[in-house]
Amino acid sequence: GFRCILHLHQVTEECEISKIIEAVDPRTKKKEASPKILRAPAVALVVLVVLSGREVPLDNGSGRFARFALRTDGGTIAAGKVAELPKAK
Q: Percentage of the chain with pLDDT > 70?
């Protein structure tokens, strides 16, 4: 997976994009399941894994604390919001 830095309100953690579930091109509305790469301005549903193993405080769905940014090499590569959290074990 691709490694980057997750910025979520006060939290900054290293994370990895472990799986791209679906991508949609907003210009053509064409959906693609499990693409290998993403290009701007694609909208994607991905699985993020926090590498530190610590729990990151999140709100599921709507709300200002559900929004995040992914950065690498000093630049923002993605912005989004949390769609779903893993089930508690």
A: 89
